[in-house]
Design brief:
By secondary structure, this protein is mainly beta. It contains 8 helices and 45 strands. Helices cover 12% and strands 31% of the residues. The chain has a 6-stranded antiparallel sheet with strand order 1-2-3-4-6-5, covered by helices on one side.
Length: 740
């Protein structure tokens, strides 16, 4: 065996070897340090030094360097040292692999948690399979799935690929055999294709959920029986057992034809049971499932398809950094509680309390009432994984569990709420009634950066969460809807008419949900940056008025990207002089305003090649937020130091500047008729102003429930003007007028 590189050796005057992480017959993996960027990295060494092997390496390394997926490490560099080896440089993935977590617990892992992780791995694998040419991993197993401190599953060890004709048999060495996880075709009993990864995913589920190594596939061909999962772990659901057994069918034709088909059944298994809303209350039945996408499930690749086959040369992780048996802090979504139902037009939606209330964001909203449903419901449970609460630290529970996130808690602050629905307060919030504004209730959220919105009928307040998007009924402030994204969603935008909901995630991805059916319509990376949940990092997104363009930006970028939301293709970019802190679309859809870290506001003419008008307010602070008045004649904006003012959008003449007092400026919003401007401060203050002269109508202080960095207040009036909602420090606040 080739001697490992010594600690301290520097390759290419850039990569210093820190530690050998693993070595095999084909190569080695090192933890290294990038001297140029001053960051850790993973260095994969391949011992192949032949001229043919080097040519193949360069071809395949270029393919891998172009991959971008939130659940795959990036290949950032590659090179050859003549006579020594071939090298790939990749992201160094912090965290423990699932084999390590399994060994530490010495028992099977929680089904709900495992399902969330493997669903995310499925998405990464599907991404590989849909490349041109397709890439198959061929070494999926618990040791190659890492869980980051943020709770994100990363599929590693995909580093060195082989382009080959799937109809041909390849050598045993190229097949990266792992007993128990490699299907029979990787032993030479057939052609390797995407279904080989499906077998390995099933075997990985088997191992994690039974704490038992799967019988080798080659032994199964001679009659050795695979014990069924529930004989080893009776607590498993029958649905997940069927998923495992189908994925592990010895004959490829009997397995799932594609990763999307496997993923669909996994989601159904995770959400199929009826569960109680609370320990003493009535339960709600889980709805029927729709396909994961509108398209038909992809068929298995034809045998003549050219593919890229992965042989296990991949990114390393930092499992050695966790010697205490710690597990990244996890918050798992309620996997078998209520799902987000989008009911097609024409359904009556009258449901008994034991059934999930069918609510849509449009005028099709139906209030729950006593009675039987008049028509059959159709729903889609969306996929995703779990992201952590993003403290930046690693918790150390004694064992891996499927702990659910904090249940939404409704705290009544006013006798007006005792037995009284919030949906019909006595009055709209207006200049005449705003003096009676009071805090009505609080909901515990799972995200410290919860941008919010409302359904058009004002019956749901929508908040970004740590696993997706949640909708809370203003009737009782209970969570009524949930769309899983697999990571923190930190910014939101509805398309005109609320047909589509867009969410920007912590990992820099945009997810588009089709709101009538609830399925994910599109998802793509809008930035290569990852956001720090503990800092002021945030994103902003907005739809054009016709819904044909989606604008994205973030506090880490000096540009606005313009996307085709249907295809996920980038159309153009608009450059900015500073990092962009907030976006706002004018009500007529003709202008996009952007506030920057330089304290400037740019007004881009969307119908005139994004021609820019620049406002430089006479105030030395970064812009924190901005919002158009409903009639579009003024734009209100707030600085990070708490001062705020407005500007005439035609003349760019600025108005009176005000401050809410000590503390950073946070959020601001106009009432639906434009008669009021609500302004929030990180000093736990809320002020309501007459916008023309910025005259204070009323101010409220509210209890700061937690001390948390990286938080920002978001505010939004309900469309009917009866409620004001705000998110701040993991809480959703609802203000309104007292009900007599």
């Amino acid at each position: 065996m080739t001697m490992p590189l010594p600690t301290g050796q520097i390759l290419r005057d850039r990569y210093r070897i820190v530690k050998l992480l693993g070595q095999g017959g084909f190569g080695a993996v090192y933890r290294a340090w990038d001297i140029t960027l001053n960051t850790p990295c993973a260095l994969k060494e391949n011992f192949e030094i032949s001229s043919a092997g080097q040519k193949q390496f360069l071809t395949e390394a270029r393919i891998l360097a172009g991959l971008r997926h939130p659940n795959l490490p990036r290949v950032t560099d590659y090179f050859i040292l003549p006579g020594q080896g071939q090298y790939l440089v990749m992201d160094f993935v912090e965290g423990d692999d699932l084999r390590t977590l399994l060994d530490k617990k010495a028992a099977s892992l929680d089904e709900s948690q495992v399902s969330i992780w493997i669903e995310q791995v499925c998405r990464a694998t599907d991404y590989l399979h849909t490349q041109t040419p397709p890439i198959i991993h061929r070494d999926i197993k618990p040791a190659n799935i890492r869980i980051t401190p943020r709770g994100q599953a990363m599929l590693v060890d995909f580093g060195l690929a082989k382009i080959y004709d799937a109809s041909l048999q390849t050598t045993l060495g190229a097949r990266a055999i792992t007993p128990g996880y490699s299907p029979q075709e990787q032993y030479g009993l057939g052609s390797t294709d995407a279904r080989s990864d499906i077998y390995a995913l099933g075997a990985t589920l088997y191992r994690l959920l039974t704490n038992t190594e799967p019988v080798e596939s080659i032994h199964r061909t001679i009659g050795v029986t695979l014990p069924t999962p529930r004989t080893l772990n009776p607590d498993l659901s029958s649905e997940i057992e069927q998923v495992i057994l189908k994925a592990m069918e010895p004959v490829p034709a009997n397995r799932y034809p594609s990763i999307s088909a496997l993923l669909n059944d996994m989601i159904s298994a995770r959400t199929s049971e009826t569960v109680a809303i609370n320990p003493s209350g009535p339960s709600k039945a889980a709805p029927a499932q729709l396909p994961l996408t509108r398209e038909a499930v992809d068929q298995a690749p034809a045998s003549s398809t050219q593919m890229v086959s992965v042989t296990g040369m991949g990114a390393a992780s930092a499992s050695e950094t966790s010697s205490t048996g710690s597990l990244p802090l996890q918050v798992t979504p309620r996997p078998k509680r209520r799902t987000w139902l989008w009911v097609a037009a024409g359904l009556s939606g009258i449901l008994i309390l034991a059934v999930i209330s069918a609510v849509v964001f449009s005028s099709q909203f139906q209030s729950p009432a006593t009675g039987e449903p008049e028509s059959e419901e159709a729903s889609l449970v969306l996929t995703g994984t779990v992201s952590s609460q993003e403290t930046g630290e690693t918790a150390a529970p004694a064992e891996v569990t499927g702990t659910a996130p904090p249940q939404p808690t409704f705290t009544r602050f006013s006798p007006a709420l005792q037995g009284t629905a919030l949906a019909a307060p006595a009055s709209r919030i207006s200049p005449d009634t705003a003096g009676d504004l009071e805090l009505l209730g609080i909901v515990t959220l799972t995200n410290r950066k919860s941008e919010l919105s409302w359904s058009e009928d004002s019956k749901l307040v929508i908040a970004a969460g740590n696993t997706g998007v949640q909708g809370y009924s203003v009737t009782d402030l209970e969570e009524e809807r949930s769309l899983f994204a697999g990571t923190n969603v930190i910014c939101l935008a509805f398309s005109p008419g609320q047909d589509v909901l867009a969410g920007g995630t912590l990992s820099g991805e945009v997810i588009l949900w089709q709101t009538e059916r609830g399925n994910i319509e599109q998802r793509f990376q809008f930035t290569e940056n990852e956001f720090d949940i503990t800092s002021d990092d945030r994103c902003s997104i907005a739809f054009s008025l016709d819904g044909k363009e989606l604008y994205t930006t973030s506090t880490l970028e000096k540009e606005i990207k313009v996307w085709d939301p249907g295809s996920g293709k980038l159309k153009t970019s608009i450059k900015s002089t500073g990092f962009i802190k907030a976006l706002a679309l004018s009500p007529d859809g003709q202008t996009l305003a952007a506030g920057t870290s330089a304290g400037t506001i740019s007004f881009y003419a969307l119908l005139n090649d994004y021609k820019e008008r620049l406002l430089q307010p006479n105030h030395a602070s970064k812009i924190s937020g901005l919002v158009y008045s409903p009639d579009g004649t003024t734009l209100a904006y707030i600085f990070e130091d708490g001062y705020f003012q407005n500007v005439r959008t035609d003349s760019l003449e600025t108005g009176v500047s005000r401050t809410l007092g000590m503390g950073e400026g946070a959020g601001l919003t106009y009432s639906p008729d434009g008669s009021l401007l609500a302004v929030g401060s990180n000093a736990d203050l809320l002020g309501v102003f007459l916008p023309d002269e910025m005259e204070l109508v009323t101010s409220l202080s509210f209890k700061s429930l937690v001390n948390m960095q990286g938080t920002r207040m978001y505010l939004a009036f309900s469309p009917d003007g009866r409620f004001l909602a705000g998110t701040y420090k993991n809480y959703l606040y609802i203000w309104g007028i007292r009900v007599e």
